[in-house]
User: Which sequence fits this backbone?
């Protein structure tokens, strides 16, 4: 079974080229390298600078990887080049088709979790097409069945947790998969779905943190965990909702950047920028931010690698902190209040940090 969030399930690449010009090292597997080499050699595909050099071999490349796609000085992949009708296109995709692309190109922007329940797919919103889906979506977000994320592959690349223990509830208690499934659904519905109940994005995160702590009192042998999760919906809202330590969470993400990537510190005048440019316009973008946070609650690797259900809530809170602080930076630079176009660009930056620059070990 393959599950998506309802706002993502219609995703299709629109060839914006954001991934092709991001300057990332893009691995080329031994399985695709010979066909690419042959296509370059016979002139079917030409690198943009009209050389025959298309791959940078790496002696210490991981198993199965021959090297990385050569990058031009502007950070673009050598195969990202002028299209006949204007703009740019992938020369490999145009000449040979999707199946001949390296796995990283076929997967981006999909972020997949595979566990005993099936395949779960969320997206990196660094992709402009994925970010636009957050703005275009209407109504409650839900978890739905959908197509295989990568055509031709039953099991996509991503975190394969099929042989792992289920996520932790506490350091000493495991969840079961039915219980985690119910908790994942609860998170999505509380943030952006049927259980929103008029809460803001920050209110939803605070509510989930409180729910996670309540759930940690559950013990095996009595009520099934999934039933305990279902009962969370009937709890009254907590009076002393958590305050988000936005700067601390943001600094966690910054500190997790892998070399050579770095990330600027939060603006020194953050509180003033937020009060002047972000807070007044936040209600107008809160729905977009909530959908973004739902995408960090769903298909979360933190559930397996960073300590279970509570760790996922922390990852969602971190995503909110990064968006809020980057919104203040962007709005301050523009000298205007935050709006839907600016929050979309801000979310792209937030996922550049959280999904691509930060190392998972660092965040965990
Ligand atoms: S091979 Fe094609 S899809 Fe992959 S990075 Fe290069 S231009 Fe983009």
Assistant:
């Amino acid at each position: 079974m393959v599950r998506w969030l309802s706002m993502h399930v219609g995703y299709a690449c629109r060839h914006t080229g954001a991934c092709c010009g991001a300057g990332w090292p893009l691995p080329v597997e031994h399985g695709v390298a010979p066909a690419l080499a042959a296509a370059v050699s016979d002139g079917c595909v030409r690198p943009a600078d009209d050389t025959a050099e298309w791959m940078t071999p790496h002696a210490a490349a991981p198993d199965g990887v021959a090297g990385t796609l050569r990058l031009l000085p502007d950070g673009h992949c050598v195969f990202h080049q002028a299209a006949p009708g204007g703009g740019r296109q992938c020369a490999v995709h145009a000449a040979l088709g999707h199946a001949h692309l390296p796995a990283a190109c076929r997967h981006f922007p999909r972020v997949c979790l595979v566990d005993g329940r099936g395949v779960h797919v969320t997206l990196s919103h660094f992709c402009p097409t994925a970010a636009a889906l957050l703005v275009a979506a209407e109504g409650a977000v839900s978890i739905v069945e959908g197509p295989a994320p990568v055509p031709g592959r039953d099991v996509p690349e991503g975190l394969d947790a099929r042989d792992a223990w289920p996520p932790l509830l506490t350091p000493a208690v495991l969840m079961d998969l039915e219980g985690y499934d119910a908790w994942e659904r609860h998170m999505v519905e509380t943030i952006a779905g049927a259980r929103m109940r008029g809460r803001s994005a920050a209110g939803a995160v605070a509510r989930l943190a409180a729910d996670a702590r309540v759930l940690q009192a559950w013990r095996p042998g009595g009520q099934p965990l999934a039933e305990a999760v279902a009962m969370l919906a009937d709890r009254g809202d907590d009076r002393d909702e958590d305050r988000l330590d936005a700067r601390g969470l943001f600094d966690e993400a910054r500190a997790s950047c892998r070399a050579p990537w770095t990330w600027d510190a939060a603006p020194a005048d953050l509180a003033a920028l937020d009060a002047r440019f972000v807070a007044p316009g936040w209600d107008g973008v809160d729905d977009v931010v909530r959908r973004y946070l739902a995408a960090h609650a769903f298909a979360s690797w933190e559930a397996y690698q960073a300590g279970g259900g509570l760790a996922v809530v922390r990852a969602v809170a971190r995503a909110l902190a990064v968006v809020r602080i980057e919104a203040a930076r962007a709005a301050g630079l523009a000298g205007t209040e935050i709006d839907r176009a600016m929050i979309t660009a801000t979310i792209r930056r937030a996922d550049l940090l959280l999904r691509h620059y930060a190392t998972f070990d660092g965040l965990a």
